[in-house]
Amino acid sequence: MSTSTATRIPAPGVRRRDRRDWRGWAFVSPFMVAFALVFLAPLAYAIYLSLYREQLIGGNAFVGLANYGQALTDPQFWQAFGRVLVFLVIQVPIMLVLALGAALAIDSARLRGASFFRITLFLPYAVPAVVAVLMWGYIYGDQFGLAANINQLVGFQLITPFAKDWMLVSIGNIVTWEFVGYNMLIFYSSLKTVPTELYEAASIDGAGAWRTVFSIKIPALRGAIVIATIFSIIGSFQLFNEPNILRPLAPNVITTFYTPNMYAYNLSFAGQQFNYAATVAIIMGVVTAVIAYVVQLRGSRAEVR
Predict the structure, then answer these.
(1) CB of 131 within 8 A of CB of 138?
(2) How far apart are alpha carbons 142 and 79 in whole angstroms?
């Protein structure tokens, strides 16, 4: 009896080698396969395309980083990049401030019908992007729609959304209308995680409504603000639907290279320059990832402090 027991129990100091359990990989394997096919494979193919160039003599030839050098000296690319950068610097803060104000107002106990306002602000995000842009395009039309009716009423061109100086503002208005509710919901959900004990302690200390907002609510929203900012940065650099759909209404203002995504799209499908289009897409992907990482890093450091 003692001998058999001794053979089953390992000697002291001897580690028994555990068998690897692969059942976890079985659960995540469908996602890993889909991730590889949908993300990694297209990314690898785009990088491959960016290293080649279609030539009249020799066909598709390897050119190394020549396409990247051409893109970095391309004035049309830099015009498009500068345009979305201006869009990001101006539109994103306005949108996030509006969303933050709406979330704070809905979270406060002083606003009546908070549920109604929350649903109303979120509804534009539920509208398909194409439908939203077409709707605003009709409103902006200088020959029809609301803008044209107002201009006819006053007798001169008071509102010109499709003018060159106002086009980016008009697109920013559409994007803000679409995504204020989405960002508001992110902020509002984060506010609901703040412990009520903090509000009670602030009330006991004599803090008013504004003091509570700046000392408790906004610091608690720091993580949500970072996330919303990153999403907005990515969306700004990927700006495509709004200008592309509005282009038939203002072809002289919205060019084929109005945004980097439009430039890559038209290079690929209109100009058959697949290699150069892939290069532009890779550059914008790297720029977006770097800026988003910097914002996340600074946000994380501020949260630690």
Answers:
(1) no
(2) 26
